Request: fold
Amino acid sequence: MIVFLTLSLFFSLIVTPVQAEIKIKFWHAMSGGRIDLLKGMADDFNKTHSGITVESQYIGSYNETLNKTIAAVKAGAPPHIFQLYEVGTRGMIDGGMIMPIGNIAKPGEVDWSDYVDAVMSYYKINGKVYSMPFNSSTPILFYNKTLFKKAGLDVNKPPDTWNLVREMGKKIMDSGAAEAGITWNMHSWYFEQWHAVQNALLADKGNGREGRAGKVIFDESAGVNIVKWWTGLEKDKIYLNVGRGWSNHRKAFISGQAAMMISSTSDVTQMTKAFNEKGWGLGTGFFPRPDAVPRQGVVIGGGTLWLTKDHPKAELQAAWEFLKWISMPEQQVTWHKGTGYFPIRKSAMKLLEKEGWFNKYPNYKVAFDQLLETKTSLATQGALIGIFPQLRAAVQSGIEKVYEGKATPEQALKEAAAKTNKELANYNSLFK
Amino acid sequence: MSQPFIATFGFPVLSDISWVRSVHLHDASGSSGKGHLFKVWLKGEISGISYAYPSGRSIMESKSIYPHKVLPYLLLAPSFVIIGYFLFYPTFETFRLSLFRLGPFGIRKLYVKFGNFIDLFTSADYLQSFKISFLFSFSVVVFGLGVSLAIAVLVNRKIRGINFYRAALIWPYALSPAIAGALWVFLFDSSAGYLNYFISVLFDVKPKWLTSGSLALVVVTAAATWKNLGYNIILFLAGLQNIPDDIKEAARIDGASPFQVFWKITFPLLSPMTFFLLVMNLIYSYFGSFGLIHVMTEGGPANSTNILIYDLYRQAFINHNAGLAAAESMILFALVVILTGLQFGTSGRGVHYQ
Reply:
């Protein structure tokens, strides 16, 4: 609280209000080098839009940003724009504190057809767009080409199926090239993506898109197969268990403890830098799929930007100007190059292709290809469930239970589903 | 007779001030005059610092009539306002919230009477939290007091460099929980930690300190105990130094062994301090260890370090379920009140005041 006050005081002293009449508060969760990147982009906007000053502020994780926003809403001083993870969509629509983009956009003002299909299929609900897509990602496989060579594997052929992951992971370990074949963090996101790859749904009512989801169905065969494979790899030590949080698996990959890593495409820039420093070769590949199932595709991950209501019209309009600006192709290209999140506009992708970006940096292309090859279906559109945090906690606990041999995959998932269903019923009771 | 006046914490978003003041009244003609214990402690997710000012002052019994009628209330008014606004109001609000089911922003709500409490007590996970909290708390209190008493006895002498040792011993207490947690993670991380590096070189195994359920609880308990040792040691030291040497001298002359001197003289005379530290450590173990757990295990793996206060945090700030979190807050409040009440109830028998 004190840090926030000091920061905002400091910030308001730096951003001398020369012509700024309208101050827009933009709270985001993009850490590390992205803080400065966003600040630079906000400054660019401020320079070209007199009368509006956007203050971009890094709050913390997505969750911390939401908590801060909730507290600010209750205190009567909410930020105009805040960023939240994609799975918070149902919760935010239900929350009653946001101004849907669809309500403020004038007809024809935004060319939604220029937005990448997979992105719009997630964020358009019953024909309406509620939030502005911003940083979209997909899970991809990263691999250490140098260690692959050491293990005698083809450096241009990363594993794209489960069996290959196991095979190649084992080879890597046996050759001594790395301590473990592959790693990723304990997070339900991968579990959810592996459902999409199998064209399986997480919840009823068409993944929550054909009606309000009443129960989860991730404990069916698709989910069980995922947990069986995942925990099987862990048992054989091919998969390095680094626990929760988003930094440990990156560290293990950068340090060479694991030769492969599954993570968000938004890590490409960071991994490229780190591998350049080490003089290693970095490769990327598709998110591995179960062998028996044809690849359906992935769900977009990342986050989106929300407008809060309860602001004077002029401020809402100014904030909307910023949202429109930041999703313009040029800005999306800047954002993509600085992070690895893929641009959400088709015209931005064309710009990148024209300048030969992907030829120079093929690792960035994988996320695109994976998305372009994704077949649209309810599974790849992404589930809409109001209580994703609880769902994720239940799934993660369940998998950890299987790690310790305290439950079989079937039991663990059944228990997790039962817990989630109970909470979902409670949540839904608010909307009867 | 003692009249405990216990006000409690509210919703843990704020740093809460919890106030326990108990006045022990003894017969003025008895060997112990009036003593009073006055404790103020600060709880919150930001720091687990506890302040305490134990004193064995005896207050002169005064029979004069205080001439002013209104002035006392005026003088107390500021305190009451602050306590009312920062303690009572949040407590009532928390109780009120616990009767509702709320949406993410608190805008949608449904009155569910005791539905939240029923949900909690029928949830296997929550009951598991209870069990873990009891285990955790018991260990932190017992080992914390035991080890720090032993160390305080060792440090209670005049040898060269003793001040340095004492400062070094209290140092961990001054660390922020987040930093202490980070240090323990550096040591105990199963893949990249220092300890496992040495163990793997010597024995070729890498124990899963923080990623296996049972071990994680042990490590977290050790960390929480270690963190509070400094505080206990300093206070035990003060208590030990308050014991007059002549009593021990007399016992030694009478032929008592050091063991007997300790258990029959030192320890009983230390009992006010021990009792005080018992309560403080209990509070610490239930509330103050949140930061450590958040940094080290986030309540995992598989909820094995999900003590009550951590589950409360989860419900409030990750699940955004304010109603359920408020209910948990009430339950935790009741639990600590009962435990503290029990301790005060038994204190008359065991504690010797001088």
In short: Chain B touches chain A at residues 13, 101-110, 119, 123, 125, 189-192, 208, 210-213, 297-298, 300-303, 314, 317-321 (CB under 8 Å).
